[in-house]
Design brief:
Helices cover 51% and strands 5% of the residues. The chain has a domain at 155-263. It is mostly helical. It has 10 helices and 2 strands. It has helices spanning 5-8, 28-42, 85-94, 96-111, 127-154, 164-181, 188-199, 204-211, 218-232, 253-260, and strands at 65-70, 76-81.
């Protein structure tokens, strides 16, 4: 198992650094997604996980032992219990290329970990165990953050006196943070429905659209909303948010474009 020419220069491979925010959230999911691409392109992902992950089997070392005892005649003697040093060394020699690559992959990962969190890798003897340790350290925190953000999205109803432009901007930012924390927590289709139902209390047309089998993405909804902002003259680059007075107009935005039909 040989490494590519690019992977031999492993010291120059720099992964996205793991960072933690003051609120406890982190960018682990960004680190994970980008690192898989980086490591795979350089030929190191196979030492960590994936379909080509196939670490060599090294027998557990059983050292040769010598014990003092008595022979059948009662005389002092030394009993030698053979170990498997030769077998272990032969297995290591055969796996040298793989083990060298694994050490380099571990070093590449360690460079992306904050100094204050290096203790997470303290007992890791391979790139695979290091990857699992980081997952265990950071993903639970991200899940809690994602749940909090999802609750904020679900509870962020656009009220009659709210600024619809500012409301949409907040929703987009919240969903971006949610995707960073846990990309599987809320599928795009669910977010699109939340945008619609939280913008207007009349969701009968949404149920009709679902019954008709219409599908749409959150980007479709967002683009239609922004088109309506321009049409109504409330887009940020048309008028200052401080001068928006047509707040009630935003309530009919989604209903109107949906009744017109979403492809």
């Amino acid at each position: 198992m040989e490494l590519t020419e690019e992977s031999k220069d492993w010291k120059h491979i720099v992964l996205t650094p793991i960072k933690e925010a003051e609120d406890g959230s982190n960018n682990y999911n960004e680190f994970k997604r980008k690192s898989v691409f980086e490591l795979d392109a350089a030929g190191y992902w196979k030492f960590i996980d994936g379909p080509d992950y196939n670490p060599p089997q090294i027998p557990t070392l059983q050292p040769t032992q010598e014990m003092r005892g008595l022979d059948l005649a009662g005389n002092p003697t030394t009993i030698r219990i053979p170990g498997n040093e030769a077998e272990v060394q032969a297995a290591r020699d055969k796996a040298k290329i793989w083990l060298d690559g694994d050490k380099k992959a571990l070093a590449i990962i360690a460079k992306a970990v904050p100094v204050e969190k290096l203790h997470v890798l303290e007992d890791c003897t391979s790139a695979h165990t290091a990857w699992k340790a980081l997952k265990s350290e950071y993903e639970p925190t991200n899940t809690l953050s994602a749940l909090t953000i999802m609750q904020q999205i679900i509870g962020n109803q656009c009220k009659p006196d709210d600024d619809p432009v500012a409301w949409l901007d907040v929703m987009i930012r919240l969903y971006s943070r949610l995707r960073d924390a846990d990309p599987k927590m809320m599928p795009d289709w669910d977010f699109a429905k939340h945008l619609i139902t939280l913008m207007t209390q009349n969701d009968s047309w949404l149920r009709e659209a679902e019954a008709a089998g219409q599908t749409f993405s959150s980007q479709t909804v967002i683009h239609r909303l922004k088109d309506e902002e321009v049409e109504l003259g409330i887009a940020p680059y048309i008028t200052s948010l401080n001068t928006i007075v047509a707040t009630s107009k935003g309530k009919g935005i989604v209903a109107r474009f949906f009744r017109a039909g979403v492809q």
